[in-house]
Each structure stands twice: as C-alpha cells, then as structure tokens.
Amino acid sequence: MFRSVALVFSKHAVRRSALCLFAMGVIAALPASAQEGATCGIAVTPDGAYRDLGPCPNQNTQRVQPPSKWAAVAISKTNLRTFTAWQSPTKEASERTALDLCLKNAKNCAVAVSGSQCVAFAYSSSGAYGYGPADNYLGADKVALAQCAAHGGKNCAVHADPCSDDGPINQQYTAMAK
C-alpha cells in the first residue's frame, strides 16, 4: 500500500527556512558584479567551439586622466602663415595662445586644429588644406597631407606640426627633416 512520510518542523526551523529562502531571493535579484579573476564570458566560435573570454577586469582600476597638455595651430587666412602653441594645460588655452599669436602678427586668423598629442596643418598653393592629429609628428603630417590631397591639393606641404609635449625645439625631428 501507500506509505506517507510526514516531516515535522518546529516553529524556529520554519522561520529559519523562510528567512534563508527570502535571503536567497534578495541576493539573486541583485545585479551580478564581476570579481577580479572570474571568467567574464564564454563565446561560441563559428565552428561551434567554446572560447573563454578570460578574466574580468578589476572593477577598482583607476580611471584614465584627461590629457594634461595640448597643442594647437592657428592660421592667417590672409597670408597663410601658421602659429602654434604647445604644452598648454587645456584645449581652450592652446587654441587661445595660437590664436593670440596669429592676431599679433597677422589678420583674419582662425584655429585650424588642436589636440592632446601631435597635430599638423598642411596646404597647397591651389588653396586646398588638410589637418589632423596623431600620436607623433610623422603620423600627424601623414594625416594632414592625405587630407590636403583628398581636397584636391597639388604639392601639399606641412606648414605646422606641434606636439603637446614639445620642448623649445625638438632636435631629433629637426635632424630627421633635413
């Protein structure tokens, strides 16, 4: 025949069980946070294999600080002279310095480009110009020259290429340019 089993719990055991179930529900509802060293995820590759995406990054890492030095190029649209600023504490300060230099020495001035690394400005006799940032002089020059050529410039030349951390004169680059 049938057997029945009855479990008898004391009031305290029932309360503890209910409390444990409630606590588990609360914890399960909280957003999961990655622990350092825990696996962040697994991806399925096109061939059906599993790929471990590796450990999660440390959640307590410091945030990246904003750049502390800026460079800028201003140009006189009247005579095409360029004026530069570097080692400025902010983007606005670098642009203001380059623009002020331009306005002291020329007319019809405007900021052409500014950045937290290296910036370059190139133009051609046909009126085409280009500018751009990069992490070094040659990279910024390449970007500016390519942009000038893309705008129809013939014989584009770089006329300014300051880097935010330049000293008075970068002897290494000057030697490379000769």
Q: Quaternary status of these chains? A: single chain
Number of strands: 8
- Give the helix proportion (percent range): 25-40%
Q: Could you give the order of strands across the largest sheet?
A: 4-3-5
Give me the secondary-structure category: alpha+beta
Major sheet characteristics:
3 strands, antiparallel
The Rg value, from CA coordinates, equals 32 Å
Kindly report the average pLDDT value.
76
Strand content: 15-25%
> With helices defined by DSSP (H or I, 4 residues minimum), what is the helix count?
4
Low-confidence stretches: 33-39, 173-178
Helix-strand pattern, N to C? HEEEEHEEEHEH
Terminus-to-terminus distance = 105 Å
The geometry reads as: elongated
Structure description:
- The structure is a single chain.
- The protein is 31% helix and 24% strand.
- It has helices spanning 11-29, 91-105, 137-150, 171-177; strands spanning 42-44, 50-52, 70-76, 82-88, 109-115, 118-123, 129-134, 157-160.
- It has a three-stranded antiparallel β-sheet. A three-stranded antiparallel β-sheet has the order 7-6-8, covered by helices on one side. The chain has a two-stranded antiparallel ribbon with strand order 1-2.
- A hairpin with a 5-residue loop joins strand 3 and strand 4.
- It is elongated.
- Mean pLDDT is 76; it is low at 33-39 and 173-178.
